[in-house]
Design goal:
The complex is a heterodimer of chains A (268) and B (171).
Chain A (H helix, E strand, L loop, with lengths): L1 H14 L10 E4 L17 H10 L4 E8 L5 E3 L20 H5 L2 E2 L4 E2 L1 E2 H11 L3 E6 L2 E2 L4 E2 L2 H12 L4 H4 L2 E5 L2 H6 L6 E5 L3 H8 L6 E5 L7 H6 L4 E7 L2 H8 L5 E4 L2 H7 L2
Parallel strand pairs in A: 1-2, 1-14, 2-7, 7-10, 10-11, 11-12, 12-13, 13-14
Antiparallel strand pairs in A: 2-3, 3-6, 4-5, 8-9
Chain B lengths: L1 H16 L9 E12 L2 E12 L2 E13 L8 E11 L4 E15 L4 E17 L1 E18 L4 E19 L3
Classes of the chains: A alpha/beta (268), B mainly beta (171).
Chain lengths: 268, 171
C-alpha cells in the first residue's frame, strides 16, 4: 500500500506543470471541433462542439458553416439539404429561424443553432474568434444568395457588438461580392481561393486583407509571395501531424484544423 | 449504449462459463504493459499489479501519445481492478474497472480528464502461467473538466496487454 501511495504522489507531482505558451499561429476548430465523424465528441456546427473546442481543447477560435433562413437569419449548418441530418425536408432557406432552431439534428440529441447564439458563446462570453464560412448557394433553388441579404443578416447580429468584438468575427466566402457588401460593418472579410496569385489580384484595391486556402492547393512558390505581401493567410484541411508540419512552411496567421490538440502541440 | 450491451453480454457469458473453472494461484505480483486505442487517442500504460486469488489490483501511469485532447504526454494516474477466472486451456478472463485521471495546464484553461471504464480482458498463457498475452475491451464515461465547463461523453477502448508475474508474495 505504501508503494502505491508513493507512486500516486509521484504521478500527481509530474502532472503539475507550468501553464503552457500559446502557439505562434491561431488554431481554430473546424465546424466547432471537427467535421469528421471518426473524431467527433460532439457533432459539427453545434453549441456543444464549439464549447468543447474552446474550453477543453483551448482553441483560439472556431470556424462554423452558416446558411440563411427564409426570414434572413443565419443558422449553423453544413450540408446542402436538411433531410440528411433532421426530420425536415428541403433547404435551410425554406424555413424561418424559429422552426430551424427548434429542429433536432443528429438522432434528436442536438439542435440547430443560430449565428447570434454562436457569436454570444464565442465572441462575447469567451472573447475568442469566430470564422464564418458562408454557404451562399441554395441547392433547392439552384441559385446564389443576394449579397444585400447577407449584409443585412450580418449587420443584424453584429450591430450590438463593440468594435473589438466585431474584429473577432471573420466572414469567409469564395465569392467576393458578399465580402464587398459587408465592407463597412467592422468585421474581417476573407476570400477563399484556389491560387494565391489569383486571390491577390482579386482582392487588390479592396478592403479585404485575408485569403483562405486549402493546404493542398498551396505550392512551394507561394511562400515568397505570402512573405512579400501584407495579406493574412488562413489555411484549412489540416488533419494529421504531417499536415501540421507542412502548414508551418507557409507561415499562416490562422489554421482551421480537425486536430486542435495536435496542432497546438506541434506549432509551439 | 452498444458498448455497454456488449460488456453486459460478456459478463453474462462469464457467469455461465465460470462454473467449470478452477481458481488461479493465490498471491503474486508483477507488471503489465497495456496499449489501447480509445476514442480520444492511443494510450500506453505500464502498470504494477498485485493479485490475491482471483482479485487483481493495478496501479501505474498512463500516457496518451497520439490523441485529440491532451497536448502533452504527461503521465496520468491509472488505478484498476480485475476479477479473474482461469479456464482449463491456458485462458484467463477477467471483468473489472479502471479509472484514469489526467491533468494538463493549457494556455487558457486547466484541464482534467477523468475516465472510468468497465473492462473485459482475455489472457492466454505464453509458455507458462507467469507470462500472458491478451486483449482488452472497455467502455464507460469520460469527463473533461475545465475552469469554465465540463463535458461528459462515452469513452471506449480496444487494447492489447502483456502480463508478467515477477515475484510471489506473502500478502
Amino acid at each position: 500500500m505504501k508503494t502505491c501511495m508513493f507512486l500516486a504522489s509521484i504521478l500527481i507531482l509530474f502532472s503539475c506543470q507550468k501553464t503552457d505558451k500559446k502557439p505562434w499561429v491561431k488554431v481554430f476548430g473546424h465546424a466547432g471541433t471537427t467535421i469528421y465523424p471518426e473524431r467527433w465528441i460532439y457533432p459539427p456546427n453545434t453549441e456543444e462542439s464549439i464549447e468543447y473546442a474552446l474550453d477543453v481543447l483551448s482553441a483560439e477560435g472556431t470556424e462554423v458553416d452558416i446558411q440563411l433562413s427564409l426570414d434572413s437569419h443565419f443558422v449553423m449548418y453544413h450540408n446542402h439539404y436538411l433531410h440528411e441530418l433532421s426530420e425536415l425536408e428541403g433547404c435551410v432557406s425554406e424555413y424561418n429561424l424559429d422552426e430551424l432552431i427548434s429542429t433536432k439534428i443528429y438522432q434528436s440529441k442536438y439542435h440547430l443553432t443560430s449565428l447570434e447564439r454562436a457569436i454570444e458563446l464565442v465572441v462575447v462570453q469567451r472573447k475568442k474568434e469566430l470564422h464564418l464560412d458562408l454557404k451562399a448557394y441554395n441547392h433547392c433553388l439552384n441559385q446564389s444568395l443576394d449579397s444585400s441579404l447577407v449584409r443585412i443578416a450580418i449587420e443584424n447580429v453584429t450591430n450590438e457588438l463593440t468594435d473589438e468584438e466585431k474584429k473577432r468575427i471573420t466572414l469567409s466566402s469564395g465569392e467576393i461580392n458578399y465580402l464587398l457588401a459587408c465592407k463597412d460593418l467592422g468585421i474581417n472579410t476573407c476570400l477563399e481561393v484556389q491560387s494565391i496569385i489569383e486571390g491577390m489580384n482579386e482582392i487588390s484595391g479592396t478592403h479585404i486583407k485575408r485569403l483562405e486556402m486549402d493546404l493542398f492547393d498551396l505550392n512551394p512558390g507561394d511562400k515568397e509571395l505570402i512573405q512579400n505581401d501584407s495579406i493574412t493567410l488562413v489555411i484549412y484541411n489540416i488533419k494529421t501531424p504531417q499536415h501540421i508540419k507542412m502548414v508551418q512552411e507557409y507561415l499562416p496567421a490562422v489554421i482551421i484544423t480537425d486536430n486542435i490538440a495536435g496542432a497546438r502541440k506541434n506549432l509551439k | 449504449m452498444k458498448w455497454i450491451l456488449i460488456l453486459f453480454g460478456l459478463c453474462l457469458f462469464r457467469v455461465s462459463y465460470a462454473q467449470n473453472e478452477i481458481d488461479i494461484d493465490p498471491k503474486y505480483s508483477g507488471f503489465i504493459l497495456e496499449s489501447d486505442w480509445t476514442r480520444i487517442g492511443l494510450g500506453i500504460s505500464p502498470l504494477f499489479f498485485h493479485q490475491k486469488n482471483q482479485h487483481e489490483f493495478l496501479i501505474g501511469p498512463k500516457f496518451y501519445t497520439l490523441n485529440y485532447v491532451l497536448e502533452k504526454s504527461y503521465p496520468g494516474l491509472s488505478i484498476g481492478y480485475f476479477n479473474n477466472l482461469r479456464g482449463k486451456k491456458k485462458w484467463t478472463h477477467g471483468f473489472g474497472f479502471q479509472s484514469n485521471n489526467f491533468f494538463e495546464a493549457k494556455s487558457t484553461a486547466n484541464l482534467w480528464v477523468s475516465e472510468s471504464l468497465l473492462r473485459f480482458r482475455l489472457l492466454r498463457d505464453l509458455k507458462s502461467h507467469d507470462l500472458n498475452l491478451g486483449f482488452i475491451i472497455g467502455a464507460g464515461p469520460v469527463i473533461n473538466y475545465t475552469n469554465t465547463s465540463s463535458h461528459l461523453y462515452l469513452q471506449y477502448e480496444f487494447g492489447i496487454t502483456m502480463k508478467a508475474v515477477t515475484f510471489k508474495t506473502l500478502w
